[in-house]
Amino acid sequence: MNALNLRVLFSLLSVLALVPEAGAQPVHFKTLVIDQAYARATAPGQEVGVIYMTIENTGKQDQHLLTATAPVARAVTLHSTHMSGGMSSMHRQASFAIPAGSKLELQPSGLHLMLEGLKKPLVEGKQIVVRLRFEPAGEVEVPVPVRSMGAGPGMGSMHH
Ligand SMILES: [Cu+2]
Residue 4: in which H helix or E strand, if any? Predict the structure, then answer.
């Protein structure tokens, strides 16, 4: 390989090295496709954070998300959101079902993963990791980019 080819190779590598920082790359795990993962940035001292994503089950077998963990939080819980009388409230779920051939969307005002006991604030532009345990697929790590607090309903109006 001559010097010119090496230079082309290195410039390609530096472009590729930037890709993970863009985040939200789909994660393919067995028959599951996990996409559009992101966490909401948190204010200093805020103890809870939230993660959204889509989970598609392309297989012929139903899957269930049973538990999740993240190094950045003491615990990660599965939540649903309910509206009543203009107030939203969240309820802990034992699992999220992803039936064969379906796509589950975790999104604001809906299902989400709750980060509890944050060890440090979630900073916009950074990336955290969450580990998901599916039955029967098993465990997979998903990179989760942190986005600004701005969009969507704030955590301030939510109550457990
Ligand atoms: Cu919640």
Answer: helix 3-22
